[in-house]
Specification:
The structure is a homodimer. By secondary structure, chain A is of the alpha+beta class. In chain A, 31% of the residues lie in helices and 18% in strands. In chain A, strands 1-2-3-5-4 form a 5-stranded antiparallel beta sheet, covered by helices on one side.
Amino acid sequence: MPSEPRPLRSASVPWWSNAEWQQMKSDEGCPMCADGSLVTNEHSDLIAELPFSFARLHRNQAQAGYCVVILKGHATELHELDHTRLAGFWYDVAAVGRAVTEIFQPVKIDSLVMGHRCPHLHCHVYPQYASDDPLKVVDISAGSLRLRSEQRQDRISQLHQSIQGQ
Amino acid sequence: MPSEPRPLRSASVPWWSNAEWQQMKSDEGCPMCADGSLVTNEHSDLIAELPFSFARLHRNQAQAGYCVVILKGHATELHELDHTRLAGFWYDVAAVGRAVTEIFQPVKIDSLVMGHRCPHLHCHVYPQYASDDPLKVVDISAGSLRLRSEQRQDRISQLHQSIQGQ
């Protein structure tokens, strides 16, 4: 089952209908609950299972090292989490950001929690490089750079090792 | 001194020059160190001083309840923070998100850490409403809705009370 970025339903006018949104927010049929832990899915590949999340390499590597950190268990908003889980999730996100920085040397790491298409709490770890325009609106769907399988595996291994070595 | 969103310098091609960026990342002359704690500045107004941050109401209320949570002390990346400060910062952000949800009833809270114009760690608490298009790229500079002073004070008071009551 797909997680992001392809919407499962067509957008209502303008947000999802209340019925759709309530269903999307529930854990029943949540695509990230279903595929967030898989070694591979349509959108990303597993780098590491962390204490509170699954760290995944996004399939679109237009921004080298673009990762997604998906909360273990279902929740939709940060303020639904208890202190332990909230802290643990962000400790995991920071570890991924540190690994991306170590390996790819971006100028900045953006950490973006949205989830308009799949409201299962996740954070886009989205690096910015010297070749990027700092004043441009950040669009996580921009560009399309798909790595060959070996390149992807190499990148996953590097990130895995960096995270585990922290 | 201004913090966001007006850049202090013109963008180089394409990111800030290395010299500019290193200077911007340092705490010397950092505009958010200077004005993040003020009752009012050019871009926002203080809602509450929290344990690890300053919660502020953004001047542009095109998204009702748009807040910025600014880390106390200077740092540029999440992975620079120790566990206590990282956890505390996100506990503060979650408290602001909870207050915005309680008062304005958005359909979703986005929590966005970027800082391309001012790399002092801060999080945009950016609510989405039923009137918003969930598939549109999020642009925190979109729209322009400036409240009259009394309306702004009312909103600040409501948020302050909600946060303090948690």
